[in-house]
C-alpha cells in the first residue's frame, strides 16, 4: 500500500448540500441542552469532523481543530481546505460567532437544536420544530415503516420501576438534542431501570424497546440536496460496546447492508423530505439472525460515519483501493506536535488517513490529550487491527483492542435496539 498518490476529494461538500450562504454549526449548546457527552472538550472536538468537506460553506469550529499543524497534516493527506473557518477559543467567542451569523441574516445549519434564546427559530436553515420532531426518539413509528420497527412502547417515566426484569432499551422522549448514546440506557437489572428513571426524570415519557441481539449493525447515510433529491452515501458497520458506546465503524469493499435495509432507509428519508427536510441523515439498522431488518435510531444530521463515507471513494483511489478500513478516534500520548508527527509517519506508510485533529489546550485553562480521527487501512480486518497496534506502539492510542481474539468482535456487534 502506498502513500496517497492524488488529492482526496469528498463525494459532496457542505456547499454542494447547503450552498455557500448558510453558516454550518456542528456544535451543541454550551448550556447543556440535551442528552450528549458531558465533557465540553468532546463536543468541541466534534466541530472538526467536516472541515475538509466544508467547501465554500462558512463553518463554526473550535480553534483547536483548526491549528496550523493540524490543517497541514490534513493537507498532506490530500484533503481539501475549507474556505472560511469561524473559530472560537472560549464559550463567549462561540456565542459571538452565532450572534454575528444571526446579525448578518445568514441562516444557520444546526446539527444540535439549541435553546430558543441562543438561536432564534427564524435563523434555522431547517426549521427548528422539524429538526426537533425528526430527532425525537418517540416519533420513530411516524417515520419508520411498521415492518422495520423494533418491538417498542411508550410509557410514563414512573412506570420504569415496574418493568419486567429482562434486557430492555430505554430511550428518552424529548425534543432536545441527543448523541453518543446519551439518551439511551440498556437496562439488564432493576438497578438499571432505576438509573434510567433518575436520568430521564425530566421527560414525561420514555420509549421501552425489546433488546435485540443483531447479527450485524449498520449506519446508513444519506444526503438530501436543495432540489429534494435523495442520495445514498453508503454505510459503515458500527462498533458499539455492550453498554451502547459508539467506537467507530468498519468499512469493507465487499460488505454492505441488505438491500432491504437500504430501501427501508430511503423510505424514511422520503417521509422526512415530504416534511421539508434537507441535509444529511444517518439511520441505525440491525440485521437479526433470521435476516429481518430493524431500524432503531434516526439521526437527521451528520453522523460519525458520514465523513468516512464522503471521502471513501477518494481514499480508495488515492491509497491503492485498500479493501478494509476502520474509522477510529486516536489520542496522542505526548504533545500535539508529537501526535501530528506520529500520524504523519503512519500516513506516509499508507496505513492511516487523518480526517480531523484536535488540540484541546487551545481552550484557555483546559488540559487534555491531543486527538486525531481517521481511517486505519489494511488488506483485512486482521491487518487493520495489526496496524492499530502499530499506531499504539508509536504514540497513537485508541480504545479498540488489537488482539487477534477481537477480530470478529461479537460482543461489540450486539447493539441495543
Outline the secondary-structure elements:
Blueprint: H1 14-18, E1 23-25, E2 34-35, H2 40-45, E3 59-62, H3 68-76, E4 85-88, H4 91-104, E5 108-110, H5 128-135, H6 140-143, E6 152-156, E7 168-172, E8 177-178, E9 184-187, H7 190-199, E10 205-210, E11 216-224, E12 230-240, E13 246-252, H8 259-274, E14 279-287, E15 293-299, H9 306-318, E16 324-332, H10 336-349, E17 352-358, E18 371-378, H11 381-393, E19 396-397
Q: Which properties best describe this structure?
A:
9-stranded antiparallel sheet; 4-stranded antiparallel sheet; 11 helices; D-amino Acid Aminotransferase, Chain A, domain 1; 417 residues; Dna Ligase, domain 1; disordered C terminus; globular; alpha+beta
What's the number of extended β-strand segments? 19
Rg, Cα atoms, Å: 21 Å
Q: Determine the fraction of residues in helical runs and give it as a percent range.
A: 25-40%
What's the CATH superfamily of the domain at 214-304 and 409-413, by name?
ATP-grasp fold, B domain
CATH architecture of the domain at 214-304 and 409-413: 2-Layer Sandwich
Helices and strands, in N-to-C order? HEEHEHEHEHHEEEEHEEEEHEEHEHEEHE
**Shape assignment:** globular
Please report the distance between the alpha carbons of the first and last residues. Answer: 38 Å
Structural class: alpha+beta
Biggest β-sheet description = 9 strands, antiparallel
Average per-residue pLDDT, rounded, comes to 91
CATH class of the domain at 214-304 and 409-413, anyone?
Answer: Alpha Beta
Low-pLDDT residue spans: 401-417
Number of helices: 11
Amino acid at each position: 500500500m502506498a502513500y496517497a498518490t492524488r488529492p482526496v476529494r469528498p463525494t459532496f461538500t457542505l456547499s454542494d448540500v447547503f450552498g455557500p450562504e448558510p453558516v454550518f454549526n456542528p456544535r451543541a449548546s454550551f448550556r447543556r441542552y440535551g442528552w450528549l457527552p458531558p465533557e465540553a472538550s468532546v463536543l468541541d472536538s466534534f466541530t472538526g469532523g467536516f472541515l475538509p468537506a466544508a467547501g465554500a460553506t462558512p463553518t463554526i469550529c473550535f480553534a483547536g481543530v483548526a491549528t496550523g499543524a493540524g490543517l497541514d497534516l490534513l493537507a498532506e493527506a490530500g484533503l481539501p481546505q475549507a474556505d472560511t473557518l469561524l473559530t472560537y477559543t472560549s464559550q463567549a467567542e462561540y456565542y459571538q460567532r452565532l450572534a454575528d451569523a444571526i446579525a448578518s441574516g445568514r441562516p444557520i445549519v444546526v446539527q444540535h437544536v439549541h435553546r430558543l434564546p441562543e438561536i432564534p427559530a427564524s435563523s434555522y436553515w431547517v426549521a427548528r420544530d422539524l429538526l426537533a420532531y425528526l430527532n425525537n426518539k418517540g416519533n420513530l413509528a411516524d417515520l419508520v415503516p411498521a415492518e422495520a420497527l423494533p418491538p417498542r412502547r411508550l410509557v410514563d417515566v414512573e412506570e420504569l420501576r415496574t418493568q419486567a426484569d429482562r434486557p430492555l432499551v430505554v430511550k428518552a422522549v424529548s425534543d432536545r438534542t441527543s448523541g453518543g448514546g446519551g439518551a439511551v440506557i440498556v437496562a439488564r437489572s432493576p438497578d438499571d431501570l432505576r438509573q434510567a428513571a433518575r436520568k430521564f426524570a425530566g421527560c414525561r415519557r420514555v420509549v421501552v424497546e425489546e433488546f435485540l441481539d443483531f447479527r450485524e449493525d449498520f449506519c446508513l447515510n444519506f444526503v438530501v440536496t436543495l432540489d429534494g433529491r435523495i442520495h445514498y452515501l453508503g454505510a459503515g458497520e458500527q462498533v458499539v460496546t455492550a453498554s451502547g458506546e459508539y467506537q467507530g465503524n468498519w468499512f469493507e469493499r465487499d460488505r454492505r447492508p441488505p438491500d432491504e435495509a437500504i430501501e427501508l432507509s430511503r423510505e424514511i428519508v422520503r417521509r422526512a423530505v415530504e416534511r421539508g427536510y434537507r441535509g444529511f441523515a444517518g439511520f441505525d439498522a440491525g440485521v437479526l439472525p433470521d435476516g429481518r431488518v430493524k431500524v432503531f435510531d434516526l439521526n437527521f444530521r451528520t453522523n460519525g460515519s458520514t465523513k468516512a463515507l464522503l471521502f471513501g471513494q477518494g481514499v480508495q483511489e488515492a491509497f491503492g483501493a485498500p479493501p478494509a478500513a476502520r474509522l477510529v478516534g486516536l489520542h496522542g500520548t505526548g504533545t500535539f506536535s508529537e501526535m501530528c508527527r506520529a500520524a504523519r509517519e503512519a500516513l506516509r506508510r499508507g496505513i492511516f488517513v487523518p480526517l480531523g485533529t484536535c488540540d484541546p489546550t487551545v481552550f484557555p485553562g483546559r488540559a487534555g490529550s491531543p486527538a486525531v480521527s481517521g481511517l486505519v487501512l489494511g488488506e483485512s480486518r486482521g491487518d487493520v487491527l495489526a496496524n492499530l497496534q502499530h499506531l499504539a506502539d508509536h504514540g497513537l492510542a485508541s480504545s479498540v483492542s488489537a488482539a487477534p481474539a477481537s477480530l470478529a468482535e461479537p460482543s461489540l456487534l450486539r447493539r441495543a435496539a
